[in-house]
Write a structure and sequence with these properties.
By secondary structure, the chain is of the alpha/beta class. The protein contains 6 helices and 8 strands; from the N terminus they run H-H-H-H-H-E-E-E-E-E-E-E-H-E. The strands form 2 sheets. Strands 2, 4, 5, 6, 7 and 8 form a 6-stranded mixed sheet that branches. Helix 2 runs antiparallel to helix 3.
Length: about 325
């Protein structure tokens, strides 16, 4: 992948993420960090049953609050379209227009509803569980529909083919998606807390604003994926191919990146904290605004040749490219 390819990919226009979904995921993520700090645990499942119930109640309150917000936004957009339509065709209500014009009116309402997946006109979406758009594979449709309509806490579907689906804003916490085919799937704002994504193919997927806290992504494919503003605190990315991926402004606190290929990746504005950072980079890897602390070393590629950078050399390499990262000394036993 050359510089022109990287620049072209970064200039692509993706579908906008519903701002309500973005804010909801930020609220859930903030509560998770607050909860873990409050009770000094790594996650809700490590707390007492009473504490875990407190966590669940708060999450439900957040979903309820933002569901009301999303409903208001959709109602406002639908109302604006109603007024615009009537003015455009000189009618007092859409049902007085021609059949063709009425079809146009209904299509636009469908678009408005699709843009706010918390409130689809039909489908199994319950509290953010199901998809805004179904995958192409019919076996996957059946599995997701059965889970969304059940009391099961997490989706268990190793190897599932979710390509063609739209799971923006869905709650896939704790899901078992080992080896899942998810390339180019809409996953912006999706909740993947402690999900198992080992070996999953996420090439080209949009994970903007997604929560991947403590997710297992070992061996996953993230080529050209977009993880801007994603929360990867405590996630494991061993042996991940993230060439050409975008991690702009992502929170990568305490995540383990061992053998992760970041050649051509964009880490601009990302935040690290005591990360295992034995990764592969090259001159097209962007680190402007990268901050925090890491344990090296990294492998720097220059064409077919590579060299190892650690300590002051790694600190200097990042600083020369606009980053400010403290390279930590390996811990001694």
């Amino acid at each position: 992948m050359g510089p022109d390819d990287v620049a072209g990919r970064r200039s692509e226009k993706l579908d906008p993420v519903d701002p309500v979904v973005v804010e909801r995921q930020r609220a859930v993520s903030a509560w998770l960090h607050e909860f873990c700090a409050k009770y000094r645990v790594e996650g809700p499942e490590d707390a007492t049953p009473e504490q875990e119930a407190e966590y669940d109640r708060r999450v439900r309150e957040i979903y309820d609050r933002f569901r009301s917000a999303a409903s208001w936004v959709r109602a406002r957009l639908a109302s604006d379209w109603y007024d615009e339509f009537c003015a455009r065709y000189g009618v007092s209500m859409p049902w007085l227009a021609t059949e063709k014009q009425q079809q146009e009116y209904e299509r636009r309402l469908d678009e408005i509803e699709a843009a706010h997946p918390d409130f689809p006109r039909a489908g199994p979406l319950v509290d953010g569980r199901g998809p805004a758009g179904w995958p192409t594979d019919q076996v996957a449709v059946q599995l997701v529909a059965e889970w969304a309509g059940s009391d099961a806490a997490a989706l268990s579907a190793p190897g599932i083919d979710l390509r063609g689906g739209d799971f923006r804003g869905a709650d896939l916490s704790g899901a078992s998606l080992v080896g899942a085919m998810m390339s180019h799937v809409g996953l912006a704002g999706t909740e993947f807390y402690r999900a198992d994504l080992e070996g999953a193919d996420l090439e080209g997927s949009d994970l903007t604003d997604a929560s991947l806290v403590k997710a297992n992504m070992d061996g996953a494919g993230l080529r050209s994926a977009r993880l801007d503003r994603a929360d990867l605190a405590g996630a494991s990315l061993y042996g991940v191919d993230a060439t050409g991926a975008s991690f702009r402004d992502a929170q990568i606190l305490g995540a383990s990146l061992l053998g992760t290929d970041l050649r051509g990746a964009d880490l601009s504005g990302a935040v690290l904290r005591e990360n295992s950072f034995k990764v592969q980079v090259d001159e097209s890897t962007l680190v402007r605004g990268l901050s925090g602390s890491v344990f090296g070393p990294v492998t720097l590629w220059n064409g077919a040749e590579s060299s190892e950078l650690g300590g002051e050399a790694l600190d200097r390499w990042i600083a020369e490219r606009g980053g400010q990262v403290t390279v930590l000394q390996p811990r001694t036993r």
